[in-house]
Design a protein that fits this description.
- The chain is α/β, with parallel strands linked by helices.
- The protein is 33% helix and 28% strand.
- It starts with a strand and ends with a helix.
Length: 373
């Protein structure tokens, strides 16, 4: 291995995971994050069986599950009557003593990964961005927004769908695309009988996800004309109004959406790079190259797996370029499946394409996610 030092741009899920994975391979890691407060919006996130497996590989699974709510089952309800169409368990990839899936608050996930990165020896600097980069073939000289500089064997851009690293690296890369949908999320008390994720399909598309023994989050999708931000004032009423023809199980929860500040509403913006994800000694991971919609609940999972695979390839390869090419080749089938089929589901929900069997697609996705990365 020719790599001994790495700069990771972005202190989110993908960047922190990559930091832990690289430190486990003996690589010195520095992570920079533009947000000086390192804030994370506090709704929950679904983590499927491949993420539970990844957390075990990162040696943070026990800390993770101490803040999460593990579960095995997924229940699907269809139509305005809320008819239960299916209920199934997914494989326990981390072993029989661990749950298949988990829900966790994003703030708690951030804490687990940040603590893991620090414990592994990664250096983290906040309120910092890259001002300039020069790759001379033997290393990368980086100038930072605070006037300091550093030299690294490689640089990893983990700075999200609107990645500035991508813009520096590949100026003519496609821009993020708005799909036409928003996702709305809200934390509320968890019913005693919620034993796993509950998904509702058509005409309301949404669900319930347990994130602690006492808490769950509700999400729903809506079609919106543009990406103009939703005002905080009136956000709770706005979210309730998006619940069109809700099934009775969902309708029973709407009155709990009361606090405007508790609503997190985001436009769904995607990007997928078909070409190289690297140039020289700089590579991109996560949403910087394959931001997807939440319809298959694998966006974070793909970023987490990226970090593990990239670290593995860097440990095996003779050069960074060789490692980056091998990393992309391993990741492309999985991330392409997630990114493209997530958009397909949203397009079907918006009536842009003909209906298709989402259950069959979900089964295919679960089967793929159960395979080694």
């Amino acid at each position: 291995m020719s790599v001994t030092s790495a700069l990771i741009v972005g202190g989110g899920i993908g960047g922190l995971t990559a930091g832990i994975a690289l430190r486990k391979k003996g690589i010195e890691v520095e992570i920079i994050e533009r947000d000086p407060d390192w804030t994370v919006y506090g709704v929950g996130i679904i983590q499927q069986m491949n993420v539970i497996r990844a957390m075990k590989e990162l040696d943070v699974l026990d800390q993770y599950l101490s803040r999460a709510s593990g579960f095995d089952s997924t229940t699907l309800f269809v139509g305005p009557g809320g008819h239960q169409e299916a209920k199934f368990d997914t494989p326990k990839l981390a072993g029989p003593d661990y749950p298949s899936n988990a829900g966790i608050r994003r703030t708690d996930l951030q804490k687990v990964l940040a603590e893991g990165a620090k414990a592994a020896g990664a250096k983290i600097r906040l309120g910092l961005t890259v001002a300039n980069m020069t790759d001379d073939g033997a290393g990368v000289d980086v100038g930072f927004s605070d006037g300091t500089s550093g030299r690294y064997d490689i640089v990893i851009g983990a700075d999200g769908v609107f990645s500035s690293t991508r813009q520096m690296l590949i100026p003519d890369a496609p821009k993020p695309n708005y799909t036409g949908q928003w996702v709305w999320r809200y934390n509320m008390p968890r019913p005693a009988d919620l034993d796993g994720i509950h998904i509702f399909a058509g005409p309301l598309n949404g669900g319930f996800v347990p994130i602690t023994p006492e808490l769950m989050y509700v999400f729903l999708l809506s079609t919106e004309p543009n990406t103009k931000p939703i005002p905080v004032e009136g956000a709770a009423a706005a979210m309730r109004s998006r619940a069109k023809m809700p099934p009775p199980q969902f309708a029973a929860m709407l009155d709990n959406i009361t606090e405007d500040a508790g609503v997190v509403a985001r436009p769904l913006e995607t990007i997928f790079l078909e070409g190289d994800w690297h140039k020289g000694r700089v590579a991109l991971i996560g949403d910087a190259v394959h931001a997807s919609t939440p319809h298959l609940a694998q966006g974070a999972g793909m970023a987490i797996e990226d970090g593990l695979v990239l670290a593995d390839e860097l440990a095996k390869a003779e050069t960074p370029e060789e490692a980056f090419a091998a990393y992309q080749a391993r990741r492309m089938p999985r991330v392409a499946h997630v990114a493209k089929n997530s958009i397909r589901i949203g397009d079907m929900q918006m009536g842009k394409i003909q209906p298709f069997d989402v259950g069959e697609l979900t089964g295919q996705t679960i089967g793929m996610m159960c395979q080694p990365i």
